[in-house]
Each structure stands twice: as C-alpha cells, then as structure tokens.
Amino acid sequence: MRAPSDATRFAQGVSDPLFPEVDKILSLFKDSCKELVDLQTQIDGKLLNLKKDVSTQDSKHRKTLTELEKGVDGLFGSFARLDSRISSVGQTAAKIGDHLQSADAQRETASQSIELIKYLMEFNSSPGDLMELSPLFSDDSRVAEAAKIAQKLRAFAEEDIGRTVPSVMGNAAASRGLEVAVANLQEYCNELENRLLARFDAASQRRDLSTMAECAKILSQFNRGTSAMQHYVATRPMFIDVEVMNADTRLVLGDEGSQASPSNVSRGLSSLYKEITDTVRKEAATITAVFPSPNEVMSILVQRVLEQRITALLDKLLVKPSLVNLPPMEEGGLLLYLRMLAVGYEKTQELAKDLRAVGCGDLDVEGLTESLFSAHKDGYPEHEQASLKQLYQAKMAELRAESQQTSESSGTTGRSKGAAVASSHQQISVTVVTEFVRWNEEAITRCVLFSSQPATLAANVKSVFTSLLGQVSQYITEGLERARDSLTEAASLRERFVLGTSMSRRVAAAAASAAEAAAAAGESSFRSFMVAVQRCGSSVAIVQQYFSNSISRLLLPVDGAHAASCEEMATAMSSAEGAAYKGLQQCIETVMAEVERLLSSEQKATDYRSPEDGFAPDHRPTNACTRVVAYLSRILESAFSALEGLNKQAFLTELGNRLHKGLLAHWQKFTFNPSGGLRLKRDITEYGEFVRSFNAPSVDEKFELLGIMANVFIVAPESLSTLFEGTPSIRKDAQRFIELRDDYKSAKLASRLSSLWASSS
C-alpha cells in the first residue's frame, strides 16, 4: 500500500488546527501560576516568622554571653587573688626554709666548731705530745676525715697567729698556745703524710690502683698533693736505676772507647726516644687512673725526663769544643761535634712533639727542650765558621801532599818540564769547589735547624756563606797564581836563551834548541792557564748557582741581607778576576814572544825581494807566515774553549791588536820589490783570514788596511797617489811602507811623496 503523498498531507493540514491541545495546556499554565503565587505567599509568611524567631534567639544569646563574660572576669579575678595568696605563702615558706637551712647550717657549723675547738685543744695540750689525741687521728679507716680536719685546724691556727698582734699579755699567751697547736698539727700532718706515702708506695708495688688513687686523693689535701706527685715521679725506675742510664749511653754511643758516628747516634736516639715515649705513655695511663690532677703529674714527669734522663745523655753525647784548641780531623774534627749536635737537637725536638702528644699538662715542653741546647747554640755560627775553616785547611794540606807525592814519584828532570808537571798537579779542581759548596750546604741546613727567627737565620746564613766565598776566592786565586808562575817561569826561560849577535854556530844551535824548549814550556803554561781560567769560571758559576738556589731565599725576608751578600760575592771574586787578568796579559806576552821568535827565525830577506829572473811569482804565503798561523791556531784552541763572553772578546781583541803591531814592526826590517809585495799581500790575507775567527771588527779593519797598504809595493811610483784617495788616515803608516820599496831611492820617491802630501793637505 502506497503512502500518502506530500500534497495530500498539506491539503489535510489546511483543514485541521495546527496545535489541537493548546487550550488544555493554557488552562494548565493558568492554574500553575495561581498555585505558585499562593506558595510564594506562604513561604514569605514563614520566612517572616523565622526572622522574628532568630532575632529573639539572638537577643537571648547576647544577653547570655554578656552574663558569661562577667562571670569569667570574676573567675579570673578570683584566680589572680588565689595566685597572689599562693605566691605570698610560697615566699613565706621559702623564707622559713631559708631560715631553717641557715639555722641548720649554723647548728652544723657550731657543731663542727665545737668539734674543731675540742680537737684544737687536744693539739694545744703540750708541745710534741700526740698520744692523747682522739681516736679519729689514729684510726686508719678514717684517714681522709682526719687529714681534712687537721688541714682545717692548721689553717685556722696559722691564720689566727698571723692576725693576732701580741701587744697585750693575754693575746701573747693565746698566740703562744696556738703556736703549740700549729707545731703539733704540722708534726701530725707530716706523720700522716708519711704514712700515706708509705701506703701509696706499698700499693704501687702491688699495682693496686684503687688504693693508690685513694691515697693520692687524701694526699691532695696536703699542699695540693705536690709531695705525692713528686714522690711518685721520683720513684720511677728510669730515674733511680743506674743501669737504665748506662743502657741509654750504650744504646746511643756504643761501647766505651768506640768512635760513635752521627748515623749510629741517630739510630740510637730514635730507639731510645721511642722507648722513653712508650714508657711515658704507660705511666700516663697509671697517672690518669690514680691522681686527681693527672695533668700536673704528667707535667712533673715529662720535665723530670727532659731535665734528668735526656740531659744526662746529652752531656755525654755533646761536649762543646773550644775554638782555641779544635779537635783534630783524625777524630772527626769540629764537624763531628756539629753533626752530633744537629742529630741530637733534631731527635730531641721530635721527642718533645711525641711527649706533647702523649700529654704533659701545662709544661712548655718545646721551650724546655730548647733550653737543653742553649749552651750549644750560644756562639753556634762561630763554630760553623771554624769548622769550615778547619775542613778547608785539611783539604789544602791533602792536595799539597798529593801534589808533592806525585812530583816525587814522577822523577822528572829539567826545570821547565818540572814546572809544567807541578802546574798540572796543582790545577784548580771543580770537584774540590763542589766539595766546598757541599760543606757549606750542610752547614746551611744546620743553620735552618737551629734558627727559628728569620733575622737570626739570615745572619747565620750570611756568615756561613761568607766563609764559602772566602774559601772559593782563596782557592781559585791561588790556583791562578800557580798557573801564572808557570807562565813566569817560561818567560824567564825565553829571556835566558835569547840569541846574541856574535856567537859560534854550535853555541847558536844549542841556544836555538834551548829556545825551542822554552817555547814548548810557554805553550804548555799557556794551556795550563787557560784550563785554570776555565775551571775558575766553572767554580764561580757553581757558587752563583748555589747562592741563587739555596741562599737567596733565606736572606730575602731581612731587608738588605740579600744585597749585602751579592756585594760580598762580587768583592770576594775580585781577587780572582785580578789574577786572571794578569795571567791573560802574560798569555798574550807568551804568544807574541813565540810569534816574534818564529818570524825572526823563519822569515828570510828573499821572501819579499825575490830576484827578477823571469819566473812566475810565488802566490803561496811565506814559511814564517805559515808557521805563525799554525802556531796561533794550535795554541788558541784552549783559549777558544776556556774563555767566553766579554772575557773572550777582550782577550782576542787585545791579541789581535798586538799581532797587528808586531807584524808592522817585523816588516819594517825588510825591503820589498813588486813580487815581494805580492807575497806580502798573500801573507796579510792569511793573517786576516785567521784573525777573522776572533770576531773582533776593529782587528779585521786593521788587517784590511794592511792589505791596502801592501799595494804600495806593487804599483808603479806614479800611481801611489791614487792608492790613498779613499783612506787618507793611513798615509802615515803607508809612508813608512813606501820607504821599504827597493826603488825608494832610485825612483826618488821621497821628493815625490813630500810634494804629494803637501798638495793633498
């Protein structure tokens, strides 16, 4: 069956109403509104009634609260009055209690006073009579009470005697009576103290600590127990047993008659001090358990250990030597004493620290330890200086003996040879200087150990370092002087064998042979001196390095100390510098003497005036030049290795100037033709190339000018004027060279030169 179409439904809707139930719903809405209005009216009435009830209840509540507040205020007032009454009653009760307590204390005091007066009367009965005393004073079970009462009685009697002035007979009689009591009390206290000490000793033998503690507590009432403390310490075995003292000595110093070494003493002291520390630690445990004031007992014990046991040992270990009569080096010398002192001081300081750790009460154990060494530390720097001086003298004696023994065993002959051998055996040794520094370093270590204040340390270090400066300065100066003696000996040999003008051929040959030997001695002495200079420089460098690394930091805390030591170091080395300077001058003289000898013996007249025979000129250096350059190269090897810096530069510059001057003087003895001039120019070139190794610009310039001046022998006479146009400063020397031309007279160069110089000037 088909559903109705949309058109059909629309047609039906037009004929029927859109909301058919609207009338019913409208009627329902009207009834609902009426009912709601009624309900609102009822609710408003109820709310009004509730407001009235709430207002009524609130009024009642407020009235009730007001009444309660009044009641609470009244209650608080009652409580306050009650509290005031309770406080008043409490204060009254407290006052009553105080009065009762005061009355009881007064009653107790009165009772005690009665007892004390009774006891005092017993002690005041008759001098020395202690037989009629109350049982209290003889009952061993009540010793503590008896000691306490006896001390009170004695204090009272002594105070009364001190307060009473015997101006009236009655007072005098009373004073005499109390004096009897004081005497009897003192006697009783002494007797009681002795009994307690005896009981204490007996308990100590049994190691009965409780009885010892009881006795010590009672004895503390007698002079604060000082006698008990001192008695306990004095009876320790380490203070009364002689064998303990002997064992200490054997442990540290070894058997009697043997020579103790610092290392053995150090080990012995370490063992002994450890034993002492362990003993004190054990005693500390007993003292803590026994004595009421253990710190005071420990103070007495440690003080006794240091003043008796340690002092007795140090007196045997350290015997301060006299600076007038030093102990011989065979027995260790003064150094042995200083080493023993350092070992003893250092180990005893360690002992003091260990004892402080164990416990020593208020005792200044470090200060007491310092006082044990006060006598040894007085004048300590003088002993260090004396020791360093003794070591230096012994070392010098040893070196002289070795040198003499070597010289005797070598069996050398010939004076120059012997001088060279002696010089080599007495050369400066860097090893010896290093040994000086090692001695000083050891002394500085002791200075640091013994000097706690920076100012004292700086002063001691400065004095010890000054000793080193003196030793090194004296040693290297004497070494340089010995090397100079060899140079002087060689110079005397050269002067002795100078060739004369008229002598036979055989005598001349012998003299020439002797001159060769003198030259060899001079060359050996030159090398020896250069070695001495080199070792001198190394020695000074060692001292400077030692000062920088070890000394300066100890001097810096004190104003001016560092600068003063630097100045002293410069002053001390000035003598060595002076000897080195003189020796270097002698070395130059030695070299130039040999150069002059070689030139004199090897240079021939024909070297610079060869015959004009048509042969090609010889461009080789002359034999004399070759010998001289070879000699200089050989001998200056030691100078190049030994010298450095400004010293090397100054020496080579001076030698170069002297060589230049010597060559000029030498060539003035010859005449030159053109081929000889070429030969001379070749020699000058050879000399110039050699001196260039000197690195001395002024010397190089002089030899370059020599090469220019040599041209005067080569050019024609008419060309001479052109040679010096760029270098007019050498005209004077050039004129002397021109005068050496073989055609000087034949070419009438004198007149030409005079007119040439006149026109140019």
Kindly describe this structure.
The protein has 25 helices and no strands. By secondary structure, it is mainly α. Helix 10 packs parallel to helix 12, helix 19 runs antiparallel to helix 20 and helix 21 packs parallel to helix 23. About 4% of the residues have low confidence.
User: How many β strands by DSSP?
Assistant: 0
Using the alpha-carbon principal axes, give the shape. flat
Secondary-structure element string = HHHHHHHHHHHHHHHHHHHHHHHHH
Q: Output the radius of gyration.
A: 60 Å
Summarize the topology:
Blueprint: H1 6-15, H2 22-123, H3 143-163, H4 169-206, H5 209-219, H6 226-234, H7 237-240, H8 242-253, H9 262-290, H10 294-317, H11 333-358, H12 365-372, H13 374-377, H14 380-410, H15 415-425, H16 430-450, H17 454-496, H18 505-555, H19 561-602, H20 623-642, H21 645-667, H22 674-691, H23 697-709, H24 731-738, H25 749-760
Helix pairs in contact: 2-4, 3-4, 4-5, 6-10, 8-9, 8-10, 9-10, 9-11, 10-11, 10-12, 11-12, 11-14, 14-15, 14-16, 14-17, 15-17, 15-18, 16-17, 16-18, 17-18, 17-19, 18-19, 18-20, 19-20, 19-21, 20-22, 21-23, 22-23
